[in-house]
Design brief:
By secondary structure, this protein is an alpha+beta fold. The chain has 2 domains: about 60 residues, Orthogonal Bundle (Arc Repressor Mutant, subunit A); about 160 residues, Chorismate lyase (3-Layer(aba) Sandwich). Helix content is about 25%, strand content about 30%. The protein has a 6-stranded antiparallel beta sheet. It has a two-stranded antiparallel ribbon with strand order 1-2. A two-stranded parallel ribbon has the order 3-12. The longest helix has 15 residues.
Length: about 260
């Protein structure tokens, strides 16, 4: 047992001692931590010190606190699911296919709404703030692992007007690509990925523990003259998922010659 020495921040010392016990396997993944009374006796410290130590470990993601049940050593659970981010098409006129690598289920109906661009969603669409959009939110679940994902599609009114999307903004992404192609666009995509801490509603919807980051992908579909057409984002637990990309070599863009 690690000896707690004074002076120094006692709760940090207790947290370090519990952390060592977790990493050594003394406190196994998924197992309950000793009770507050047991930790007080083990480390000869006060109840507030124990609570602060457990709170610190919770913030680190080593411990989950279940109200009414106690504190448990966090377990990584099932291996992460692999989400393929490729888009393919069979021939020049074949249907588009997205390769998530997962047969997602949708436990709820998609939520359709009208919204406006913000300082975050406007730039990828080449729009300022306050421009009208159709929005569609989906909750996706992987039946094999229970992993959840949140998918959002944002469609500018200008894009929807030229297609059937104004009447059906809940169209699936691959079918949206098909509609845009039929409208005369030659499509290409850009995508960014960031890891961040979830908002409270995201954490609840994704059913992920405290101190777990999410992977947030943002995909922009571009059309004729590189015009941004729609914006999609996907949010999923960084602990439960990994993203896979197929990367092919491209010719570098031709350098522009300076005019004399």
């Amino acid at each position: 047992m690690t000896e707690i020495k004074r002076p120094g921040a006692l709760y940090q010392q207790v947290a370090a001692a519990i952390r060592d016990a977790i990493l050594s396997g003394e406190f196994a993944p998924g197992a309950p931590l000793p009770s507050e009374a047991q930790l007080i006796e083990r480390y000869k410290v006060s109840r507030p010190t124990v609570r602060n130590a457990v709170a610190a470990l919770r913030a680190e993601g080593l411990v989950n606190v279940q109200h009414g049940k106690g504190s448990f050593v966090r377990t990584s659970g099932l291996p992460p699911v692999t989400v393929e981010r490729r888009i393919s098409r069979s021939g020049s006129a074949g249907p588009f296919v997205t390769h998530d690598g997962i047969t997602w289920e949708q436990p709820d109906e998609p939520k359709i709404y009208r919204t406006e661009t913000t300082a975050i969603t406007g730039p990828p669409l080449g729009l300022g703030e306050g421009e009208a959009l159709f929005g569609c939110d989906r909750l996706l679940t992987d039946p094999a692992t229970g992993t959840r994902a949140l998918h959002r599609t944002l469609i500018p009114f200008a894009t929807a007007e030229d297609t059937e999307l104004a009447q059906a903004p809940d169209t699936e992404p691959a079918a949206i690509y098909e509609l845009l192609t039929k409208a005369g666009h030659k499509l290409w995509w850009t995508e960014t990925v960031q890891a961040r801490m979830p908002l409270p509603d995201e954490r609840d919807a994704l059913q992920i523990p405290d101190a777990t980051p999410v992977l947030h992908t943002t995909r922009t579909t571009h059309g004729t003259n590189d015009q941004p057409l729609i914006l999609e984002d996907l949010r999923i637990s960084a602990e439960r998922a990994q993203l896979a990309y197929r990367i092919t070599a491209e010719k570098p863009p031709a350098a522009r010659r300076a005019r004399a």
